[in-house]
């Protein structure tokens, strides 16, 4: 059985306890993981605090920090195959997605490597001739990053990259579901040459390890990605020390298709928009809002495509939809589909968990045109389930799109650019993709509002968010 370890203060350790990790494709235990209890969390935070004040890190130039991040990016690219393999094994995410994602994870580190020495302060032209006043941008301090199991290498990169570029130190808590890629990442990080303790990687269960970490008095900032309910715990925990937070939470993103859209392109974008990562993605385009003028034709084409999606073993390059990460995830998807059908949603395709080993749920489409109260329209599924609503007018499309407590992503498909601009202005979400879906870049900020959280990852702003400003007054 594979054996993974924590990374604390530049050393590897087994953790106060251990737990088993299950392969979602088989339902069988395949590896043993360290489980952080309070003593491990405290050791990791102490190591991060010591590293923050150690001369080697505190006086390292920004350019030198950038060079270390470049080295890390190169090491990740060299080890891409192993990392992708482990993420697939431990979370069930298909190998073609984990392999592609590792390539852009390395790009995010390169982007923040380049930004490290471009985080600038400012000189203030105050109205006093004998005073020189300027702002220094200093690292915010010791950061706790808590990540979910889906896309952990990516969701940690958008925290580790800017935080280390800014000069912070960190404790990253990998999800207890599928921590293997993060623990392997720590082995690779160790070779990049950062001073010990600058980054510490632990894993363990939310209510114990996550809680102790996020309420730790030495933590200055908590960067959290996960569900809104967990976020409430995290905010309450961090409030004890008044630590700042950034929250990247869930979504129920509308995918709006007007009658003049390029139908084939919209169908393809909708298929990958909802079924990529088996729907376990915060930006999944999980609510199709489609013009009634094309609804039947559009659904017919979607059904055709959904029916031929290759469902299979996640480590097979031919597989397009793999298992869900956990048995619980599969059961939740089934419950939500059943509850939606019970209130009038019509099954277009799929809808029944597969009767085979592992946690497989097929691509599913539910037409909710006659079921406005179907829970699938409001609850985040985190499964391959698309809910559909038709509309007659642009105003109706916008109202349906905004009828959600989330506000993360959205898609608009139309050839009418003036209409596209009206939709861009009207949609309440952190991201609007027009005639495309799921496009990402390290340069573009990513995040939402409402139940989707606050703060942005990606871009220069994310690096600035890991700094605090010091005003300096010098009488001359
Ligand atoms: P989750 O909220 O259950 O867990 C996320 C992390 O929080 C895990 O590491 C978990 O151990 C930890 N945690 C749990 N309880 C805790 C507590 N009391 N204190 C501190 N930490 C605690 O989420 P999940 O099921 O692993 O992931 C799915 C969720 O993540 C979905 O809602 C999804 O939309 C969201 N997500 C958001 C983004 C984004 O960028 N906006 C990206 C991916 C996933």
TrEMBL record:
Signal sequence range: none
A single MF term (Gene Ontology): oxidoreductase activity, acting on the aldehyde or oxo group of donors, NAD or NADP as acceptor
Keyword Acetylation: no
Source organism of the structure: Shimia haliotis
Protein family: Belongs to the aldehyde dehydrogenase family.
UniProt name for this protein: Aldehyde dehydrogenase (NAD+)
Active site feature: 248
Domain named Aldehyde dehydrogenase: residues: 17-472
Keyword annotations from UniProtKB, A to Z: Oxidoreductase
